Amino acid sequence: MLTGRKYRLELDFGQRLFAERVAGICRSVWNTGLEQRRAYRRRGAFIGYAEQCAQLADAKGEFPWLAKAPAQVLQQTLKDLDEACRRHGTWKVHWKSKARWTPSFRFPTAKQIPVETIDRKWGRVFLPKFGWVKFRLSRPLGGTVKSATVSRDGKHWFISFLIDDGLQTPLAHACSDAVAGVDRGVVTAAVTSDGEFFDRRHATQAGVSSMCPPAEQDERATRVAYLTPGEAERYLRLQRQLARTGKGSRRRGRVVRAMGAVMRRARYRRADFNAQAAHRLTRDYAHIVLEDLDVSAMTASASGTLQEPGSRVAQKSGLNRAILDKGWYGLEVALRSKSRYTGSVIEKVPAAYTSQTCSAPACGRVDAKSRENQALFRCTTCGHTEHADVNAAQCIKARRQAAGPAVSGRGDSGAARVEEASSTPFQSLRRAASCRVSGTGIPVPSASGRGAGQSGRNACGVGGQRVCECVSRGIPCAQGWFPVTGSLYAGTPPSTRGISWWPGFPAIPIS
After folding, report:
1. Cβ atoms of 264 and 270 closer than 8 Å
2. N or C: which end of the chain has fewer CB within 10 A?
């Protein structure tokens, strides 16, 4: 399978200047190509990658500075632009600003970038128009090079190789029955349904998790979780210096670079923590269930506009920083990457009310008052007491069990999935997703609606014409509906077998 290897380049002064120049040429080609595509769209026409490449070759005669960059690098820039426009639309693709863009360019052809090992610590790669460039061989390549991307991070340049390591995803996980719900939070990075807490404050040589909640820290220490107290204090001083500098001044540039160096350490530590946590989770669990969170929408600014200014902007800004600092999306990406090597299946369930639902199998009451504080959950109905994050993780796991097994993407047959879903014991299904009408739980959005994947949000009806969400999920309903083995939609009572659930929808045969 394809994976990545990133190494630090050791460029001399001339190579660094040339790398900056090549990156600037690629940025200019991207912006010019994007403006050309938008101009064509305004006229109702279209221009694609092939035509833009032909025009780029002609433009090198008029603009000689274009010819100084490697040809395949410029062609790859136009190819990336074409893919971005096809995926997101021409008007949603962003410009590459000199101030905000990270300089980078890619060599797509492996035969033009041969790699050699010098010794145990060093290697070298031949880059067109650069010559041989040394890099720190911090780990073996471990496969065949497919392409290479050169990028700058701070004052250092790095090269990332796309590698084919020759491995295949296992057909089954070593622990095929192990299932874990994972709750991501702003205090603790991740908590499993088994009561294991993953957080940087647990990071030791033994691992990054503990069965006990992390100890409390003062506000200054938790302002940026992946910085030491000294680094956090230095970053605060740099922020104050930045406020006293003028825009465009050299002093401001020095302060910004110093702030970037501090936050770079936090970014590297966050990525390392996510990689270690993902390794532990995918090693121990065959099914990992996450909340379906739109992190980009959750961290959007609440400032509003001049006509409609937002409210509680400072509080929302603090919440955004806390969410981004924990790296919720980074953990999900790391889990999906690691799962390719273990055969784990990463699933998502609706996130609504998981922190307010009682995880006790005989309860499932939804009440905001049950969440007494950040760390304590005590059900107002049954008195069940649990750590709030563990309770939420158990509710996430219960929703996955209620919804049935997910498609793993490895060729599982539909019949096998139906049989597996219908054999789920009712005792393992929690009432956290029970009937909407009875009010004993929170309804779960249905993945099976009118035979075409609609939401199925109707309440319990009469005569079998409509079913509630708990029935469509295969959960015993408080209104007297029960799942029946053999039905893909899992839900006609014995007395109404063969009756159409939806007006105009044919009856589902029961085996």
Report:
1. no
2. C
DSSP state for residue 406 in the 8-state scheme? P
pLDDT of residue 439: 37
- 442/398 Cα distance (integer angstroms): 12
Strand 287-291 versus strand 345-349 pairing type: parallel
Model confidence over 23-62: pLDDT tens digits?
999 999 999 999 999 999 999 999 999 999 999 999 999 9
Which uninterrupted H or E stretch holds 159?
strand 156-164
Coil, helix or strand for 441?
A: coil
In contact, 10 and 134? CB cutoff 8 Å: yes
Which residue, among 178, 208, 173, has the nearest Cα to 341 in the 3D structure?
173
pLDDT at 326 exceeding the cut of 80: yes
Helix (H) or strand (E) holding 314: helix 313-326
DSSP H or E run through 42:
helix 13-42
Which residue has 């350490």 as its token pair? 265
Retrieve residue 497's tokens. Answer: 């077998």
Rounded distance, CA 171 to CA 176, Å? 10
CA–CA separation, 420 and 101 (whole Å): 49
* 434 vs 210, residue with greater confidence: 210
Taking only the tens place, the pLDDT of each residue in 59-115 is: 999 999 999 999 999 999 999 999 999 999 999 999 999 888 899 999 999 999 999
Q: Between the ranges 7-21, 194-208, 454-468, where is the mean pLDDT highest?
A: 7-21
How many whole angstroms separate alpha carbon 56 and alpha carbon 33? Answer: 9
User: Mean pLDDT lowest for which of 263-277, 289-303, 479-493?
Assistant: 479-493
Query: Exposed (0-12), middle (13-18) or buried (19+): which is 402, by Cβ within 10 Å?
Result: buried
* CA–CA separation, 155 and 253 (whole Å): 13
Strand (E) positions, 300-455? 345-349, 376-378, 385-387
Q: Quick check: helix, strand or coil at residue 134?
A: strand
Judged by phi (left if over 0) then psi (alpha if -120 to 50, else beta), residue 456 lies in left
- Element counts in the chain: helices (H) and strands (E): 11, 15
| Residues contacting 485, CB < 8 A, separation 6+ | 422, 423, 511
**Token digits of residue 417:** 């999935």
What is the DSSP track for 69-103?
A: S-HHHHHHHHHHHHHHHHHH-GGGSPP--TTTPPP
- Report the distance separating Cα 196 and Cα 285, nearest Å: 13
At 424, is the pLDDT very low, low, confident or very high (cuts 50, 70, 90)? very low
Check residue 204 and report its DSSP letter. B
Which amino acid makes up residue 317? S
**Rg of the chain in Å (alpha carbons):** 28
Report whether pLDDT(470) > 60: no
